[in-house]
Predict the structure.
Amino acid sequence: MEILQLLWQEVLGFLGVTPALEILKSGDYSSFKTYDGIASLIYPIIPLLLLLELAVGLVYKKPQIKVYKVNFLIYIFNRFVGRFIAIAMVTYCLGLFSSYAILETTNTWYWFIYAYIVWELGHFVYHYLGHKVRLFWCLHSTHHAPEEMNLSVTHAHFFLEAPYADTIRTTVCILLGVKPEMLFTVMFIDGTYGAFIHIGENMIKDARFGFLNKLMLTPSHHRVHHARNPLYMDTNFCNLLNIWDRVFGTYQEEQRDVKIEYGITREMNSGNFLDVYFGEIVALFKDVVNAPGILNKILYLFMPPGWSHNGDHKTAKVVRKAYLDNS
């Protein structure tokens, strides 16, 4: 019975309904007007959309079941291995860097806009490094391995990625004066929207959202980010505001004549949990072992994926430039 109760609690936790149920049990419905109450109503939206997306896919016989299967295994693995690490890193960074903030903000609407722009900068930095540094790519590649886009991809992360991502994002925000309470609000909004942009074509076929495609990052932009097509590789690193992609030249819109191919360029079995989760680490280990000299071994750790000590580079930058030059 204890096992069944534990499983039931895990199901409720996945669905995100526990906070709302606690408020309902208390009978104090006015709590729904508070920040925590509103958050409790928003939490279940993405998990419920995920289940609806899967159901629609089953009806139309379109989902890649192996994608859902592997992402579910990743979710379970991460729940037990890396559950509290990211929270601990955020708390540590708050205490460590708060006294070094270069300016002081207040809880006003204009500083909130500033906070969101700063958060997006931190997100861009972490995300960019995740694609441009081989060691970090080993953590981030798990998220790019699925060969279909759907909401379950939200949960496809190596357990160490969240700690290093939140360390970078939190540090940038705190040093630039974002107050902790505002930071947590931004993190909640960004986390919710960051899950939504993984919605699949079974639910939303054309995810450009009309004129919004020019003003913000839409699911269409993020589908481009997850593509392995040469035109799309290593673009659209932002999460909601695509300002930094435009600033740093990594912005790319989805082209109607270039069909998105999801996944990573390494040959792999996307239905195999071990290959999805540890495959890039194994590949890096082999490259380091076979590389001649200490310097080349170190370079394999920090140079972009596709870099080679013999000069035969197949990095995203090289592949994309060759494609654009021949277009």
In short: The chain has a mean pLDDT of 88.
